[in-house]
Amino acid sequence: MKHLLIVILTLLVVGFVSAQTAASTFNFIEYQRSFPRIGDALKRKQDTLMKQFRDKGLTWPARYIYLRSFKYDSQLEVWVKSEKNEKYQLFKTYKVCAMAGTLGPKRMQGDYQVPEGFYYINEFNPKSTYHLSLGLNYPNASDRILSDSLQPGGDIYIHGSCVTTGCIPITDQQIEELYILAAMAKNGGQDFIPVHIFPIRFTNQKSSDYLVKYVKDFPEYNPLVGEMRRVFQYFERTRQLPVIAVSSKGEYVVEETLPQLPTVKEENVIRKKVRPEKTYDESALAKVVDKLPVFNPGGSEGFQAFLDKLSHDMVSYLEEGQLKTYLMVEFVIEKDGKPAYAKVIRGGNDEMNEKVEEAFEKMEAWTPAIRLDKNVGIKLRQTLSVEKVSKSLE
Fold it and tell me: What 3-state class would DSSP assign to 285?
């Protein structure tokens, strides 16, 4: 009996030590390796990545990585370092192989916009429909204040397969490399891998010229551009990341002392014709509802038919040489179901916008939104795509 107790205690101690050893040796990479796509990618890519690091004088694996993407330039950069206080070094630049939307931040579900701003990786998906994917924390603190309160959108990823409706796609081979680098960094203790999405590469003159032209039409975009430019130039100068905060108004605040950076000069900004401001008591509108308003007649299908017809009617208002534009329309469905206070807050031109606003306000009455068994007013946002189709495709 005594010998039996000794054996049992010995087994328990051995089991406890084994469990502790297993717990201490378990890591994120081994967990990821258990998924077939990652296990296969590691077998094929790890040695190659190690060689690429050696050739560039970099320490493998990188304990810290930083990603920055440039929408207009269709590029995704990977920066790495091995110690927190070191400067980042460029490892590789990938070509973003598809892009949706236009310049400007994402503000609502279904607007096909790639976000702009400062994010981090919050999800590793080894079973993605798009081969592999790294999720971003959109909507972030700024987006939750400035985007549509009911439907800001989500599910923004860096992924493979070269297709997108608002994400950042690269090839399957590239996402395998990037996924491994990110997993290695997370395994090394980097819980928040920063991903900064800029409208352009600010050092590219062609891109800068395009942005200047774009901001002339959308001067309200200039403050966001200014803060993103500050972050870009700070990193260019220091190869370190500044501290970025979000104000109570949802604006980014770069908490570093930087020299005054150039913005679009006021005298160069051609203001749009100012239409009479449409005001209403926004406090009287519901922020949350139990049931959204329904378009009459035909519900969502009827509303889509209305949008399709309006989009077709607006083609004649495209400017010379312009093939396509996106508009974002903000409007109110009052508690009696009447559409009101339509306003184009992005896109189009003066003539087109007036026609779109008029069309939205002349819609038939909707079935109103409901909150606590009562009809309530609510503000909605809707994107509208206006595209000139070539005759060969009509």
Answer: coil
- pLDDT category of residue 278 using cuts at 50, 70 and 90: low
109: DSSP letter: T
159 is catalytic: yes
Query: What tokens appear for 76 in the block?
Result: 């995704």
Select which of 159, 162, 196, 312 is catalytic: 159
Query: What residues pair up with 340 in beta bridges, in sequence order?
Result: 332
Q: Which of 97, 131, 162, 167 is catalytic?
A: 167
Report the distance separating Cα 160 and Cα 138, nearest Å. 19
293-317 pLDDT per residue, tens: 999 888 888 988 999 999 999 999 8
Burial class (CB in 10 A: 0-12, 13-18, 19+), 160: buried
Which residues are registered as beta bridge partners of 90? 79
Can you give the pLDDT at residue 270?
A: 44
Q: What is the pLDDT of residue 28?
A: 93
String of DSSP letters for 8-49: HHHHHHHHHHHHHHHHHH--HHHHHHTSHHHHHHHHHHHHHH
Q: Lowest mean pLDDT of 66-70, 141-145, 320-324, name the range.
A: 320-324
Which amino acid would we find at residue 13?
A: V
Q: Is the previous residue joined to 199 through a cis bond, with omega within 30 degrees of 0?
A: no
DSSP state, residue 283: G
Nearest-angstrom CA–CA distance, 125 and 123: 6
- Structural tokens at position 268: 């160069």
CA quadruple 224, 230, 233, 239: dihedral sign? negative
Q: What is the pTM of this model?
A: 0.63
Looking up tokens 């190690």 gives 50
115 prior amide bond cis, ω within 30: no
